[in-house]
Write a structure and sequence with these properties.
Largest sheet: 3 strands, antiparallel
Distance between the termini: 71 Å
Oligomer: single chain
Shape: elongated
Order of helices and strands: HEEHHE
Strand order of the largest sheet: 1-2-3
Number of helices: 3
Number of strands: 3
Strand content: 15-25%
Helix content: 40-55%
Length: about 110
């Protein structure tokens, strides 16, 4: 009986460690795959990006534009994303699909 308890504890411990590892692995930023050229779509400079699970419009725009938190105008980012992708819900992006994301010039 003691052996069965020990085996159960070891199994639970291994499952816990595996779960923590997977959780940390999925939460690390993915390497973005993007098209080589920037384009202009609806008078907005955009870049075509293939997104991975967990990516959001804001996280991708932040990576390509490198601005501070105070500089981000979320409403403008969402409006520009919708202009570049008229039939896409920015809150429900699909992994392994390409979308256009706005690029902003820095002063």
């Amino acid at each position: 009986m003691k052996t069965i308890k020990n085996c159960c504890f070891i199994l639970l411990f291994l499952l816990l460690i595996t779960s923590i590892y997977k959780d940390l692995e999925l939460s690390t930023p993915s390497t973005l795959q993007y098209a080589a050229s920037e384009t202009i779509k609806n008078n907005t400079n955009v870049i075509k990006v293939k997104i991975e699970r967990g990516d959001t419009v804001l996280s991708i725009v932040e990576k390509f534009n490198q601005f501070d938190e105070e500089q981000i105008n979320i409403q403008k980012v969402m409006t520009d994303f919708k202009k570049a992708n008229p039939h896409v819900d920015p809150y429900h992006l699909k992994p392994n699909k390409y979308y256009f994301f706005p690029l902003y010039k820095h002063n």
